[in-house]
Write a structure and sequence with these properties.
The complex is a heterodimer of chains A (351) and B (341). Chain A contains 15 helices and no strands. Chain A has 351 residues and is mainly α. Chain B has 341 residues and is of the alpha/beta class. Chain B folds into 2 domains: 162 residues, 3-Layer(aba) Sandwich (D-Maltodextrin-Binding Protein, domain 2); 139 residues, D-Maltodextrin-Binding Protein, domain 2. Chain B is built from 14 helices and 10 strands. In chain B, the strands form 3 sheets. Chain B has a 5-stranded mixed β-sheet with strand order 2-1-3-10-4, with helices on both faces. The interface between A and B is medium-sized, with 31 and 27 residues.
Chain lengths: 351, 341
């Protein structure tokens, strides 16, 4: 860490004399652009009026308004026109995967689904009876709350699972790269911050224009919202692997690839599993918001309850979402715990 | 401890001074109810501006979906709602009028339209003019619903709006439900985005929509004909609609259905607010408030194209370019509003 901050400040020093004037120039250009693009009725007649009449210092003047909205709209329009086919392709692929999965699971008899969940939990948790019984009970209770919820929860599960798969495929490689390349990490961290803080409607509504109403913009939204914790925890997990262990691997002459697959990833797995767990939880948090763009699932029951002032309905559906969250959480956590036990050095355990 | 008390005391004093200094009539407080569609937003913005600048009132605006805002009005929490789609809420309105929860304050926009719309190119190509023209698997395939194979999709109202249930009943009565899903877009913004997105991509659009709206001026939609509006038929349908709203879609009974009436949009106030004699000048203003449909449309167009999404700017634009509002208020108020423009 110390050497890093040192090199960072060194970098700053080297470029300092370019940085300050560059920023000032950019700022000046932005002000001039905003002044020139403002509507004439907002502008003072002469620039010199600004020096004699200081009323513009009271309220923020309308001519000091950087026109970001119009170019963004133009870029968006261009995206739809030029790359509409490309987005349709993504849409068809994700929707196909979603429909296939949903139709299959909805088609199965419900006792079979409950049984499958129980079997999955049993093996994922390393044959822990307590967890298995609890998860089985939660699964049963979803349909038990209201038969309507069963299919809706399956739809939600499918959306969350597909969003998750997307997160895994993209997030873990990015996390690994981040851990190995500090420069890449430095440039990506602000992007992750942006993804976590930008209000979800900012990308949901453009999502509708690009993909249409329904499941696909929700999957994209889930991806944007829940991939950052996975990336962060993968990165952290790999960086936290003991230096001595990595050095030992180096001493044995392990190649970079062998070091990664044989040492770093297995030792980082508990952290990565935690990332996956967080990723699922955040995906589920997105479910109600996604129903505001016409995504079918358990979220729209909550929304409907809210819109019809039906407190009971909203709470009941809310409980179903919590049950779903418990199921996902228990399975991923239990699996994570099992991996952690496996990766613990055996000798230490015996002591 | 003593210093904390002193600080608190001086803060509360300062607070009182601030509250009294911000408005000339400290007693005048209005809570406006606003909805999640743009024409309601325009009316709220215009009345808010006049109330604040002309009457010196403190105006609070709550924005939401039809059901919660109307419920807040019936519950006397909201004072005035400046755009009520009365005919969609006939039963609810009449119940609450009878109970004395609200009073009506006349018409806000003389004409409005709502119904099922198809984009012009598709309508021309396949000769879609009437809802019955939609009833074929071939046509439904044009509007295919990717999540319900074999069916088309009509983007409908959001489930919090009464028209969602009305459309549900209409679909069943017209026999459209065999071919189309009555698709809840989830929010007003999503409905607009679905229509705008369809036009941008050049895809067929089949949707519920209404005017006056800003989007209507920008896209070319054809309204499908339905059986003509008839009071008796509408009332019978509304009974079924209200029943479904309370007890779920399973209680559907075959009924009659007809076109939405080209209705006048109205205004309403809570009885508690209306009965307070101090509010009389405000009620008089709201009663007089009426804007012709064409002007609402041009305001909405201004809002979408020129204001940069700024409702206050839109209200100011309306107030400076039209003088019909001067007849709603006493001349002293009009002067103050003009001075604030």
């Amino acid at each position: 860490m110390g050497s890093q901050s040192l090199s960072h400040s060194g970098l700053m020093k080297k470029n300092k004399k370019y940085w300050v004037p560059l920023c000032l120039t950019v700022f000046a250009v932005l002000v001039v652009v905003s002044y020139r693009s403002a509507k004439p009725r907002y502008k003072p007649e002469n620039l010199s009026d600004l020096l004699s009449d200081f009323s513009w210092l009271g309220n923020w003047p309308k001519w000091l308004d950087f026109p970001l909205m119009q170019p963004l709209n133009a870029v968006f329009e261009w995206l739809i026109k030029e790359y509409g086919m490309f987005f349709d392709g993504i849409n068809n692929f994700l929707l196909g995967a979603y429909s296939l999965m949903k139709d299959f699971l909805v088609g199965l008899p419900w006792p079979l689904v409950v049984a499958l969940v129980i079997i999955l939990t049993y093996f994922a948790s390393g044959k822990k009876m307590g967890t298995t019984i609890m998860v089985g009970f939660c699964t049963f209770f979803i349909g038990f709350l209201s038969p309507r919820y069963w299919d809706k929860c399956i739809m939600t599960t499918c959306i969350v699972l597909i969003g998750m798969l997307l997160c895994l495929v993209v997030g873990i490689p990015i996390g690994i790269t981040m851990a190995r390349k500090p420069k890449f990490r430095k440039s990506l961290l602000p992007v992750l911050d942006l993804m976590q803080t930008i209000p979800s409607f900012c990308y949901l509504i453009p999502g509708i224009l690009l993909f249409g109403l329904g499941a696909v913009p929700a999957i994209i939204a889930i991806f944007v919202y829940s991939v950052p914790p996975l990336i962060r925890l993968t990165d952290l997990g790999i960086r936290l692997v003991d230096k001595e262990v990595v050095e030992a691997a180096d001493a044995f002459g392990a190649s970079k690839k062998q070091k990664l697959w044989g040492v770093q990833i297995p030792l980082a797995l508990p952290n990565i599993m935690q990332g996956i767990n967080q990723c699922v939880m955040m995906a589920l948090a997105m479910v109600v918001i996604a129903s505001m763009i016409g995504t079918r699932g358990i979220g729209d029951e909550v929304l409907l309850g809210l819109q019809q002032l039906n407190v009971g309905m909203a709470t009941e559906a809310g409980i179903a979402i919590v049950l779903l969250a418990i199921i996902f959480d228990r399975i991923t956590q239990a699996y994570g715990d099992r991996i952690q036990e496996k990766t613990k050095p055996k000798k230490l355990k015996k002591k | 401890m003593y210093t904390i008390k002193k600080v608190l005391l001086s803060l509360s004093l300062l607070g009182t001074v601030l509250v009294f200094s911000t408005s000339a009539y400290a007693a005048c407080k209005v809570h406006l109810g606003d909805f999640d569609w743009d024409s309601a937003n325009v009316h709220t913005a215009i009345s808010q501006f006049i109330l604040e600048k002309g009457y010196g009132c403190k105006v609070e605006v709550s924005k939401g979906s039809t059901t919660p805002i109307m419920a807040a009005l019936f519950d006397q929490q909201v004072d005035i709602v400046t755009e009520v789609w009365r005919d969609n809420l006939v039963q609810l309105m009449e119940d609450n009028l009878a109970k004395g929860n609200i009073i009506e304050l006349g018409i806000n926009t003389p004409e409005s339209g709502q119904g099922f719309y198809v984009d012009k190119p598709t309508s021309d190509k396949y000769g879609l003019k009437h809802v019955n023209d939609m009833k074929s698997a071939k046509i439904a395939a044009l509007f295919s619903d990717p999540e319900a194979p074999g069916k088309g999709r009509m983007t409908s109202c959001i489930s919090g709006w009464t028209c969602y249930t009305i459309n549900l009943v209409k679909h069943k009565v017209y026999g459209l439900d065999k071919y189309y899903t009555n698709f809840d877009p989830g929010s007003g913004g999503a409905l607009d985005a679905a229509i705008a997105g369809g036009f941008k991509k050049g895809k067929p659009v089949f949707s519920y929509y209404w005017e006056p709206t800003g989007l209507m001026g920008k896209v070319d939609l054809v309204k499908l004909k339905e059986p003509t509006y008839e009071q008796g038929c509408w009332d019978r349908m509304t009974t079924v609609v209200e029943d479904i709203k309370k007890n779920g879609p399973d209680v559907y009974k075959p009924t009659c259905a007809c076109a939405y009436v080209d209705m006048a949009l109205t205004k309403a106030a809570s009885t508690k607010f209306a009965n307070n004699p101090a509010n009389k000048p405000i009620l008089d203003f709201i009663k007089a408030y009426t804007i012709p449909t064409a002007l609402v449309n041009s305001s909405l167009a201004f809002y979408m194209d020129e204001s940069g999404g700024d409702m206050e700017e839109t209200a100011k634009n309306f107030l400076s370019n039209s003088n019909i509002w001067e007849s709603w208020v006493p001349s002293s108020v009009a002067r103050k509003v003009k001075a604030a423009l």
